[in-house]
Amino acid sequence: MNTFENQVAVITGAASGLGLVIAHKLLYEGARIGLLDLNEQALNDEFVGNPEQEERIGVDVTDEQRVAQAVARVAERFGKIDILINCAGITGATNIKSHEVDTANLQKVFNINFMASFYTAKAVLPYMLQNNYGRILHVASIAGKEGNAGMLAYSASKAAVIGMAKVQGKEYAETGITVNALAPAVIQTPLVDAMPEAQVKYMTDKIPMKRCGTLEEAANMAAFIVSPENSFVTGFTFDLSGGRATY
Ligand SMILES: NC(=O)c1ccc[n+]([C@@H]2O[C@H](COP(=O)([O-])OP(=O)(O)OC[C@H]3O[C@@H](n4cnc5c(N)ncnc54)[C@H](O)[C@@H]3O)[C@@H](O)[C@H]2O)c1
């Protein structure tokens, strides 16, 4: 498979979970990738075999200036940017009601889940506009579509991400750039492992298929969304919820 031969991607949150498997799939299918994550050590541990295809960058994606520098470094090394996949994300405190939410924690969640996705999109779009081609995928969540009780900060930040994909999809619709979001239900990753058991049960019980999604299912769907084949869908939030969201 060489779907992504001659294509250059930027993936945030590439050191773990969804970002990690999506990055491996795109590498395998020929992409050259800027791998961005706060956890530089994990990036170095997880990516060993393809130095000529990888630019590993330890960066806090909530720092707009450092994001712009990281994106410029990828474009300089590989010559262009075709794909952006925003996977970096956190849940913040969960299993609490809105009156118990700590404002600083909510702001931190928004900074990573929403603001950072805005910064990366803002940084890559000029490169994509140069070539009249681009695929942006913001990884949102079913929580953003449905609103998970106990997860105000996370759900609201992911709803904001879905709103951004709708806006950006329309803004760049005539340019060859598509912007979409993905709304997974529960997929076992370190992010889910770190959540209170009661909150994970609440989310998993709502999945009609009565199972979690797999990392492979997430990687396959993400790869399709950012492929050249996916050319007539933009501003859309793809579902990956085992039947929870039928809209
Ligand atoms: N796992 C699920 O069930 C699930 C469901 C719906 C949506 N999502 C979304 O998918 C995305 C990936 O989640 P995951 O489950 O793979 O999580 P994960 O915790 O396994 O990976 C997240 C990665 O983001 C990185 N990161 C966090 N903050 C960062 C920052 N400030 N700067 C740079 N990197 C940072 C972490 O170091 C980590 O490597 C997230 O946006 C998450 O909200 C996950």
UniProtKB/TrEMBL annotation:
It comes from the Bacteria. SUPFAM superfamilies: NAD(P)-binding Rossmann-fold domains (SSF51735). GO terms for molecular function: 3-oxoacyl-[acyl-carrier-protein] reductase (NADPH) activity. PROSITE patterns: ADH_SHORT (PS00061). Its EC number is 1.1.1.100. Gene3D superfamilies: NAD(P)-binding Rossmann-like Domain. Keywords: Oxidoreductase. The keyword Oxidoreductase applies. Belongs to the short-chain dehydrogenases/reductases (SDR) family. This is 3-oxoacyl-[acyl-carrier protein] reductase.
